[in-house]
Amino acid sequence: MDFDDLRSEIAGLDQQLVDILNQRAELSVAIGKSKKKAEKVALELATNGSAATSSIYIPEQEKSVYNRVKSLNNGPISDNSLYSIYREIMSASISLQDKVQVAFLGPIGTFCHQAAKKKFGDSVSFVPYSNITDVFEAVETSKIGYGVVPIENSIFGSVPMTLDSFNSIKISKSTIILSEIYLPLQQTLLSNSELKKITKIYSHPMAFGQCQPWLKNNLPDVQCVEVNSTALGAQISSLEPFSAAIANSMCSSLYNINILEQNISTRSDNTTRFLVISRSQQLLQPKNADKVSIIFTLNNTKSNSIQNTLQLFDEFKFTIISINSRPAGSCFEAGTDNTSNWSYTYFIDALISQQNSSESVNLLIDGLQKYCTFVKLLGLYFNEN
Ligand SMILES: O=C(O)C(=O)C[C@]1(C(=O)O)C=C[C@@H](O)C=C1
Hints:
The chain is α/β, with parallel strands linked by helices. It folds into 3 domains: about 5-185, D-Maltodextrin-Binding Protein, domain 2; about 190-270, Periplasmic binding protein-like II (D-Maltodextrin-Binding Protein, domain 2); about 285-380, 2-Layer Sandwich (Alpha-Beta Plaits). It is built from 13 helices and 15 strands.
């Protein structure tokens, strides 16, 4: 076959592909209508007037689509390429079912924006918010269906603002975790000045934390100015002579600012974990979820409560993979909480194994109530690591 024959064969297949994609999309629209009907019924049944929402994006179903497609793949297309193609097919699919909006820490060009696109594809709308608590509030008040927030970085650790937002009844009473995203990232020094003329650097505190040795060795005397996001830093610096920003290299073209130095993070495998959050009166319980996030505040009057709670995880066969703690009183609820100084809220992520019974999450939560003044199951989802 010559060149033209091969191209005309591709054209024929493209026609079939487009037809098949549209047939798939029509089925998805039908699923969307059923979801809306079910949601309406749930809303009518709900005594408090608000029912489960956020039923358009279904991580469990997406996982089964990805697994099925992978198992059907005989090459030569790689599984990763097929994954990206299906990400966009399902992105188009959910956007036909409803107007899907995803809140992220803006402005455009943040790593959070990149993580949101990695999960939701290009067919949904992304809405920037100027800080993490605003993303939570938009989701909690149902202004927007989904939010993406950073939770921890492999070099600099947890993101306090996200933990504190989960710890606030006001900000996240009905907010749950639907899924997680691991985003490998490279911090870049951006500036329209020469390196030796820089006197000020703008960035998010988490990004400064990921680049400490580089900054100490290369720009030890510059002023580091913390701003709400890396992309905001790039935006500000692009307009200010003798300043720089630490941000995603994508900000270079977005904000007209030069790349001075690539990869300034302390480790080349620098990765941030993000969470997809949504509002729901009921926790979604995907059948094969293998990760659980729980938040609890200990009752300080009971001795040994930390040991006792950790023992419960062991008893019910959960493997704890991370523990974070923050002061128990929510820093977002001035004067309204009655927690004492030096009491703590704990955030635990644990793996669920085959050994866990289907009841074990509920048993664990019941067990925790004995030692805690507050317990909430934040999410049951799939471990993407
Ligand atoms: O099965 C569903 O619930 C669908 O809405 C269909 C579909 C898909 O296109 O395969 C779309 C979006 C969901 O997140 C999962 C799957």
